[in-house]
Amino acid sequence: MSATMVLAQAWVNDAILVISLLYLAIDIHYDWDFFVACHRPIHKWLVVSYALIVLARVTRVVGGLKSTAGSGEFLLNLRQRHVVSRILTIFTWLVLVP
User: Fold this and answer.
1) pTM of this prediction?
2) What's the confidence (pLDDT) of residue 5?
3) 27-61: string of b/e by CB count within 10 Å (b at 16+)?
4) CA of 65: how far to CAs of 23, 28, 61, 73, 85, in Å?
5) Secondary structure (H, E, C), 15-84
6) Which burial class, exposed, middle or buried, applies to 78 when counting CB atoms under 10 A from its CB (0-12, 13-18, 19+)?
7) Is 75 exposed, middle or buried (CB count within 10 Å of its CB: 0-12, 13-18, 19+)?
8) How far apart are CA 21 and CA 25, in angstroms?
9) How many C-beta atoms surround the C-beta of residue 69 within 10 A?
10) What does the alpha-carbon distance between residue 91 and residue 98 come to, in Å, rounded to a whole number?
11) End-to-end distance of the chain based on CA atoms, in angstroms?
12) How far apart (Å, rounded) are the C-alpha atoms in residues 63 and 87?
């Protein structure tokens, strides 16, 4: 399989992920009034979780594109040479992962 086809398949997978999470968020928005009776704000937790999933994926894609060719896996190499990759690595490990 060529690199172009692999990249196209990755974008299709990302699009399916975003569309699915957007559908779930819209569904929660329509049922927002039904969640009022909940003792815990489960609906808010779900929407924040969906947003964090998309943010983690965007961070991974942008960081992978901005990392240098011989630096290895983006999130595992803590010594990134590119400033954007370094900032995204720190953001991922200190904000998104915990």
Assistant:
1) 0.74
2) 64
3) ebeeeeeeeeeeeeeebeebbeebeeeeebeebbe
4) 28, 33, 6, 11, 9
5) HHHHHHHHHHHHHHHHCHHHHHHCCCCHHHHHHHHHHHHHHHHHHHHHHHHHCCCCCCCCCCCCCCCCHH
6) exposed
7) buried
8) 6
9) 5
10) 11
11) 36
12) 9
Tokens of 94: 């200190």
| Residue 17 tokens, joined | 């992920």
Position 89: which residue type?
T
**Tokens standing for residue 26:** 């819209």
Residue by residue, pLDDT tens for the chain (98 residues) are: 555 665 666 788 888 999 999 999 999 989 888 887 888 888 888 889 999 999 988 888 888 777 777 767 777 777 777 788 888 888 888 888 87
Pair of tokens at residue 91: 């953001």
